[in-house]
């Protein structure tokens, strides 16, 4: 609100009076149609690659077998897309670039069965509002073609007869000529042409019956040139190269359950040999190039357990669903779609990829040459192939799957001697061969590998040896139903129902992950470094050791001081091995990422720091690592939030308690009833958010991660972590009898 001060020179500061200026509300008016269209055009055509995508889809809808793209200055000066499709009828040219003119549908219900790429009739119109568009086309049977120019959705003059080749050529010049801010931004960007090339590459490996080419204006050679082929893998090899194609595996999954989901998926995924710094995911749903964040995250979780650190996969995937199960009209640029039963589809695909990767370990093996003992042992590594005969003339024996070299950088436990294919020789010492192989593989996987410490190997061997096979099957193949209470989740495995303690499960999962990620942690950066003494004092006060006032505070300060000094002395080791950074002043500034896409409850940081000081045995290496991992596991576990659950009896915690004197007696009872509805709304909202976030994380982060990583120990079979509560078969028989 604006204020006006009258005669400020004649008044003292205390006498100044602010008077509000009353203004009339602004008038609402209808925008000019040209303004509306230009605003809409800026949303549909966001940058040059958006225009290219729309034109490519139009060409594919026109049954083209060859599409060529010509680009000048990243698409700002010129975009030209030519195809050999069925062309555009002469009678349709006058309304071609008007908004909402299309040949793809005639009524809204047609969207339920739409199969074409375009349907809105907005793309060409939008281009005419932000650029100069020229269309040249010829249809089958015509002796000559026609050329027309368009501006602001209107054809500027009658189509002119011209020489033309089969199909349509659409040329956009001076894109964003009337949007100076966007044009200047794009002129300073050097990635528009690479984006166009990447887009055409994606179309080329899906539409393998179409020839694609793309080149810069004035260049003699095309940057993309793909020819029609019958093999998807050949198309990938042609576009992305041999190094990508030779490291791909075919994957297929389908579901035909009307009550759950109906879909078919086929594609190619990279194996463990593929190494890249950036994920490449090409996803087509019903032949539409789209993005799906949920599916991408699910696949990245699976690959996190397979690829070397900092490597990303290559994914090509084509999903087919009934047209009525997909909503294509959810994004201005059609970049996203909405799927019926999306969560089920994503889970099925994730499981199929996980299974494929588990069974593909044999694609990465290491062989050793037979050499004389010498200080420098020659070791060669290559893919295992049955077509390569050994020196004795017989084929090399295939290494069993369980003996293959592990490629999971997050599980660098070593034990590589158990995986090697040994050539019998009385002249070679096993120890020298093992040392050389370990060195070669360590350089290939990670030059900073430090998880070969004997203590870490022993701890992970203990996890492997104590794994309960039946519980492992339950964890890997269970279905999450929901939370039964604050601690127990309800699971179904086959026909049995179980209650599972999510706190115990998550604590064990985090403990195992800490050991597997040993010395390979990413970091959570705290916005403000937290002083260790203050954190420890907070934890001690929460514990309420005793109630002796000042003496108790003195004791707490001594404990905090001693623990702080101890942790500061071990700061270098904590940072190198566990990703916990503590500066010279005793401030905690970084914490490790134990599980991707999960951040622990920061309210438990004081308790965690106190555990580091009190519970860790710093004298014995193995016990030290074990207790630190246990402390981190307890910190990262899915504990119930500190605020009581508002959905149960905890609701009374959020009700305001009215203050009253003893003299008021029974007269205040009616007031009590009136105050029952008064609650601390801000605190209640915070609690509801915390509990809802926890349940979401349990379902979408904890259980998917457990299926991949957790090896439940035998103790969980007897300590109440898993409780079998029902058998659906028995219940069904009881119901039948009733």
UniProtKB/TrEMBL annotation:
Protein known as: DNA mismatch repair protein MLH1
Positions of the DNA mismatch repair protein S5 domain: 236-358
Biased composition, class Basic and acidic residues, residue ranges: 357-371
Chain segments carrying region Disordered: 357-413
Bias kind Low complexity: ranges: 372-403
GO BP annotation list: mismatch repair
Keyword Coiled coil part of the UniProt annotation: yes
InterPro entries hit by this protein: DNA_mismatch_repair_CS, DNA_mismatch_S5_2-like, HATPase_C_sf, Mlh1_C, MutL/Mlh/PMS, MutL/Mlh/Pms-like, Ribosomal_Su5_D2-typ_SF, Ribsml_uS5_D2-typ_fold_subgr
Coiled coil: 538-572
Keywords from the UniProt entry: Coiled coil, DNA damage, DNA repair, Nucleus
Pfam families documented for this protein: DNA_mis_repair, HATPase_c_3, Mlh1_C
Source taxonomy: Eukaryota, Viridiplantae, Streptophyta, Embryophyta, Tracheophyta
Organism per entry: Sesamum latifolium
Family stated for the protein in its record: Belongs to the DNA mismatch repair MutL/HexB family.
GO cellular component: MutLalpha complex
Subcellular location, record wording: Nucleus
Sample GO molecular function, one term: ATP-dependent DNA damage sensor activity
């Amino acid at each position: 609100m604006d204020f006006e001060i009258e005669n400020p020179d004649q008044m003292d500061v205390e006498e100044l009076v602010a008077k509000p200026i009353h203004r009339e509300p602004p008038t609402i008016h209808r925008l000019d149609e040209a303004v509306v269209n230009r605003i809409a055009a800026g949303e549909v055509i966001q940058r040059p690659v958006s225009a290219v995508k729309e034109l490519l889809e139009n060409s594919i809808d026109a049954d083209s077998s060859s599409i060529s793209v010509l680009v000048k200055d990243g698409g700002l000066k010129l975009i030209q897309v030519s195809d050999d499709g069925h062309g555009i009828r002469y009678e349709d040219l006058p309304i071609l670039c008007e908004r909402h003119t299309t040949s793809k549908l005639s009524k809204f219900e047609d969207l339920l069965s739409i199969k074409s790429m375009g349907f809105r009739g907005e793309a060409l119109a939008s281009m005419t509002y932000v650029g100069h568009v020229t269309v040249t086309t010829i249809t089958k049977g015509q002796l000559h073609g026609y050329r027309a120019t368009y501006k602001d959705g209107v054809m500027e003059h009658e189509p002119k007869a011209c020489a033309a080749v089969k199909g349509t050529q659409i040329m956009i010049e001076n894109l964003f000529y009337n949007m100076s801010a966007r044009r200047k931004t794009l002129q300073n960007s050097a990635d528009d042409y690479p984006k166009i090339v990447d887009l055409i590459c994606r179309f080329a490996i899906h539409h393998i019956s179409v020839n694609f080419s793309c080149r810069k204006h004035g260049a003699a050679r095309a940057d993309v040139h793909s020819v029609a082929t019958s093999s998807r893998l050949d198309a990938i090899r042609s576009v992305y190269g041999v190094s990508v194609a030779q490291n791909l595996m075919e994957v297929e999954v389908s579901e035909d359950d009307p009550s759950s989901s109906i879909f078919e998926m086929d594609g190619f995924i990279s194996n463990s040999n593929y190494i890249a710094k950036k994920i490449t995911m090409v996803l087509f749903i019903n032949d539409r190039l789209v993005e799906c964040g949920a599916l991408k995250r699910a696949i990245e979780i699976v690959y996190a357990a397979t690829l070397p650190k900092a490597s990303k996969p290559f994914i090509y995937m084509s999903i087919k669903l009934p047209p009525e199960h997909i909503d294509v009209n959810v994004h201005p640029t059609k970049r996203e779609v909405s799927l019926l039963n999306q969560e089920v589809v994503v889970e099925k695909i994730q499981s199929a990829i996980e299974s494929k990767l588990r069974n593909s370990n044999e694609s990465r093996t290491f062989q050793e040459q037979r050499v004389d003992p010498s200080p420098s042992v020659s070791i060669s590594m290559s893919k295992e192939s049955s077509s390569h005969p050994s020196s004795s003339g017989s084929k090399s024996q295939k290494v069993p799957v369980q003996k293959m070299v592990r490629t999971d950088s997050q599980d660098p436990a070593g034990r590589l001697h158990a995986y090697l294919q040994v050539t019998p020789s009385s002249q070679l010492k096993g120890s020298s061969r093992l040392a050389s192989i370990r060195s070669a593989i360590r350089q290939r996987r990670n030059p900073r590998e430090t998880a070969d410490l004997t203590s870490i190997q022993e701890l992970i061997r203990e996890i492997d040896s104590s794994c309960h096979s039946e519980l492992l099957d339950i964890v890997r193949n269970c279905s999450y139903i929901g939370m039964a209470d604050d601690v127990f989740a309800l699971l179904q495995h086959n026909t049995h129902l179980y209650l599972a303690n999510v706190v115990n499960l998550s604590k064990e999962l985090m403990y195992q992950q800490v050991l597997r990620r040993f010395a390979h942690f990413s970091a959570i950066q705290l916005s403000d470094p937290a002083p260790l003494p203050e954190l420890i004092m907070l934890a001690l006060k929460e514990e309420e050791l005793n109630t002796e006032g000042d003496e108790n505070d003195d004791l707490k300060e001594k404990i905090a001081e001693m623990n702080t000094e101890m942790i500061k002395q071990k700061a270098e080791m904590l940072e190198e091995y566990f990703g916990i950074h503590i500066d010279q002043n005793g401030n905690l500034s970084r914490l490790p990422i134990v599980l991707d896409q999960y951040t622990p409850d920061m309210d438990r940081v004081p308790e965690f720091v106190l555990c580091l000081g009190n519970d860790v045995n710093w004298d014995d290496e193995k016990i030290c690592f074990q207790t630190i991992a246990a402390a981190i596991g307890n910190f990262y576990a899915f504990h119930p939030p500190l605020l009581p659950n508002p959905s149960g009896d905890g609701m009374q915690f959020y009700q305001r308690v009215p203050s009253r004197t003893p003299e008021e007696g029974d007269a205040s009872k009616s007031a009590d009833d009136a105050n029952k509805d008064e609650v601390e709304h801000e605190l209640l909202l915070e609690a509801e958010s915390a509990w809802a976030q926890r349940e979401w994380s349990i379902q979408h982060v904890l259980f998917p991660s457990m299926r991949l990583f957790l090896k439940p120990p035998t103790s969980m079979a007897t300590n109440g972590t898993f409780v079998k509560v029902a058998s659906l078969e028995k219940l069904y028989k009881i119901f039948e009898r009733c």
